Amino acid sequence: MTTVQQSELRNWHEVPFTRVKMTDMFWRPRLEILKKVTLPACLAKCEETGRIDNFAKAGGLLEGEFEGIYFNDSDVYKVLEGVAYSLMLERDAALEGEADRIIELIAAAQEPDGYLTTYYTLVAPESKWSDMEKHEMYNGGHLIEAAVAYYEATGKRQLLDVACRLADHYDRTFGPGKRHWVEGHEEIELALIKLYRATGEDRYWRLAYWLMEERGHGHGVGAIWEKPEWGPAYCQDDVPVREIEQVTGHAVRAMYLYSGMADAVHVSGDTAYLGALQRVWSHTVERNMYVTGGIGPSHHNEGFTEDFDLPNESAYCETCAAIAMVFWNHRMNLLFGDGKYADVVEREMYNGALAGISLKGDRFFYVNPLASKGDHHRVPWFDTSCCPTNLARFLPSIGQYVYARTAAGIAVNQYIQGEAELTLENGTAVQLKQRTSFPWSGTVELEVSPETSGVFTVQMRVPGWCRSYRVQAGGEWVSGVEALEERGYLSIERHWSKGDTVLLELDMPVERIRAREEVQANVGRIALQRGPVVYCIEQADHPGLSYDEMTLSAYGKLRVEHREDLLGGVTALQGTDGNGKPYRFVPYYAWDNREPGFMQVWIREKEEERLYKY
Amino acid sequence: MTTVQQSELRNWHEVPFTRVKMTDMFWRPRLEILKKVTLPACLAKCEETGRIDNFAKAGGLLEGEFEGIYFNDSDVYKVLEGVAYSLMLERDAALEGEADRIIELIAAAQEPDGYLTTYYTLVAPESKWSDMEKHEMYNGGHLIEAAVAYYEATGKRQLLDVACRLADHYDRTFGPGKRHWVEGHEEIELALIKLYRATGEDRYWRLAYWLMEERGHGHGVGAIWEKPEWGPAYCQDDVPVREIEQVTGHAVRAMYLYSGMADAVHVSGDTAYLGALQRVWSHTVERNMYVTGGIGPSHHNEGFTEDFDLPNESAYCETCAAIAMVFWNHRMNLLFGDGKYADVVEREMYNGALAGISLKGDRFFYVNPLASKGDHHRVPWFDTSCCPTNLARFLPSIGQYVYARTAAGIAVNQYIQGEAELTLENGTAVQLKQRTSFPWSGTVELEVSPETSGVFTVQMRVPGWCRSYRVQAGGEWVSGVEALEERGYLSIERHWSKGDTVLLELDMPVERIRAREEVQANVGRIALQRGPVVYCIEQADHPGLSYDEMTLSAYGKLRVEHREDLLGGVTALQGTDGNGKPYRFVPYYAWDNREPGFMQVWIREKEEERLYKY
């Protein structure tokens, strides 16, 4: 088993998205749409579907029966979390007023002992904690995340108090010498650690740690055991977490667990989980991830099957799982200071996660196949609507992935135009200005302005897709020891004065990607990627073409064309197929935003003999 | 056998280098050095070694015996040709005076019937035309090329008259119903066609055509047959030229022949040679060319052996052969309007041919291996000094490879910053301004200024190494039918007005190249190329490293760094080898310009498992 030493840890610190002002043309318009369209639409759907009324009913403020599914409370919390992040970016009285109204209902629904899950209160109060699959703590976790966010956004304590009462109720009920519990859908773990960070109360992270340690010892209970084909691996209850070797079961649950485990290392200083985290990361990313970053190929368990089982048309690839990969990989990136984790964050940001939402911000994918004959389309809402509400909280907080504070200075993890401010370990305040048209261009100019001049290190991530690059600092080529490249970052250690710039030019040609040969679905196929953006072909651009008819030579030349009038502004790829017919590729994330038709990422390769093989 | 139709021909017209003013930082400084160092050095060597005196002696102006080798006259002619080209770029009274002095001696050496080869005049006047291997017409061909050039440069007819008298002598002596002749070293064929173009006298190209047709019918005579291991294939006398299937024998001779054959198609309109040219081109380029553009692996015959026999350390790759590849491929490019030929021109320009000369312009390689343990160095001169003198005429005329006039407009074949003027088929004068830092950057801005606005087509070559690119014309993305890509060129047909620009951005990442698996020497090895420039590793940058010790991962990241202070200004590549040690690659053409040590192009690959294969 891998032993990971304390010395391998970097323990970078997050730079919160509130310190990062994004002024770019890719994400900033999406944040506007999120605020104007997505959040109001999600709130309206929560209202229409009785999700909000459930709280009023549980609190005795409204007559009626519980509506929907037992985990529906979580959707309301997740939208509230998104509202909070949006308010942090820009206060909005109307949005805040609506949130306050909902929070009143939530507070009313909390039972006197702190318990809160409207399904059990309204439907089966006597059956609480009898079934790990009923998402009681999953609901609780999302409440906690929303509460911490809303408190940070507004300074209002009401929801935070509800969350603490709930967490205290858990802490009184479960733990060493108290009741056992394994939650079927992880989420509570990372939420409790967030609550610890917000309140400084150690007992919250200790409870999170205990809950993780409970797994794999036969403490799981309830109806899930009646589905033997799932088994305990479905909800990561098959082995003690520190012994995890392989990713198993439900994809979102697994990713939330690993996120909690990474958090636990960070808060506890205990490296016991590191070996498991590294093993399961390799197993997930190297054998069970699609080129889009999608994970979990199977509809059956919303999760993993066999290694390299990555079918395209039937790919499940839940949007939530892609978002959860961001959560986990961001934490791993901070823990280890290794760009290979930020690579995954980036892959999800521009592909697997972003595909989940329409360009207009009002329709969503739950399932993200890599090929479709034309019958798969986004819809405004789902009975199980975890994906829209996950996007509602993921998108506004995207600024947090851009920078980190390191022991020696600053790390730039993602390239998004904007401004940021942070304080170095030594107390020096630094202003950063990033100019780039990423992801459409690989040129990034970073202006570094420390309050007082001094020596520190700026680490620029060299993405995994980038195979050659140029870099200058202060107008000089960076070379030698001051430009060590380690763990996917170029480290520039120098004396920085106000206005000094780093100019990083990442070569961003179109790459023809071949899957590992173990992936049966992609044998003889290639995909196109430019920078972090994976491309697909859509029928909308090829009216005469049939599904899977096209062939592509790996050696054909591609014309790269930025079109502001296409799909909200995309860089498209144009070339000639194996039969000499012109074609166009568009970013995968933007598919199904025009007339219905087929879509394909992996295209059959037309074999061609070449003088040299590249 | 391939049948090539008349309709496949494009018959582009060359834009002479006199119409192309190069203002770039790569070639222009080399032209300065050529004029200041290389030409004077070559003239001095011709003087020192008795090459010039041989003319004075043959003309009865000086006492003494013939010095050197029978083909030494040709070196004087080739330097004179280089002087002429240099004078076309910039008049220089001293250089011209020296040329005039030498020309007087050459004229004096010509025999009354027009015969001119000082070896035979001085050594064996009775043995003329008894041995095809004695380079009589090879000398004559170079005289003709020099004469045409000098006449075009200065308007002075003396040398041209000598050349015409010589050609007339050939024409009187050889031809249908006269004597048979197969010249052992081709050169006369393309020279006679040049003389036809300069004088308008049909008999010159007809004689060239007849000389080519003589081959392969058993008409060769002389000592060469006493070297049975060479045989007639050595000098392309084994089959009639129109039946050529494969490249054989001495590399320079073969390339000069094919150049003459391409010229013959152009002047005669007869397509009989096209099939042979296309076949032998594929055979040469796809099976018998090094990544540097070098051809002819063997010292034994200065030429070709078996397909895919491309050893690195023992590679012969004569500089002249690389230059001759330019001559041939330039002609093929004009004939077929196909960028695959211009790709070879470019490959030679930036690699195989350019390596032949030191950065200071005063030392030369005859032999260009792709790996050296440290004992191979340029020298100031050779007994057989064809290579220095070929560089002396190749370099100043490099501007001719940049543009061509097409039926529909203009083709841009090479990217070199500068200005040019040409006249379209319809009579419109067009000024071109090209701005680029090629070969270090793939961004090219071409300003197209026709005297009067109108519709025509500008074809921009998309080099073979370039796999994705962006292009705008008049500030707009070019797409659809006006941007057809055919035969390696992007055609932009539009209405052009003064000052309209094309902005072409060729993605120029570092490519890791693998040879075809048939090349035994390179199995398990990779080479690095960026744009047209092939890289090598030199001991000068790695004092602690042993020859062939280094390993390289195909997936390692490379830092691209332009260094004006290194090797005359180069873009170097820096990275980490398979063992984590830093390394630097420098352009192959620039090797052996620092302290002696090993050099390698093909590096052993360190195998590494990757998530995705590129």
TrEMBL record, chains A, B:
Domain (Non-reducing end beta-L-arabinofuranosidase-like GH127 middle): residue spans on this chain: 410-508
Domain Non-reducing end beta-L-arabinofuranosidase-like GH127 catalytic: 20-399
Tree of life domain: Bacteria
GO annotation (BP), single: carbohydrate metabolic process
InterPro entries: 6-hairpin_glycosidase_sf, Beta-AFase-like, Beta-AFase-like_GH127_C, Beta-AFase-like_GH127_cat, Beta-AFase-like_GH127_middle
Domain (Non-reducing end beta-L-arabinofuranosidase-like GH127 C-terminal): residue spans on this chain: 510-604
Protein name: Glycoside hydrolase family 127 protein
Natural source organism: Paenibacillus antibioticophila
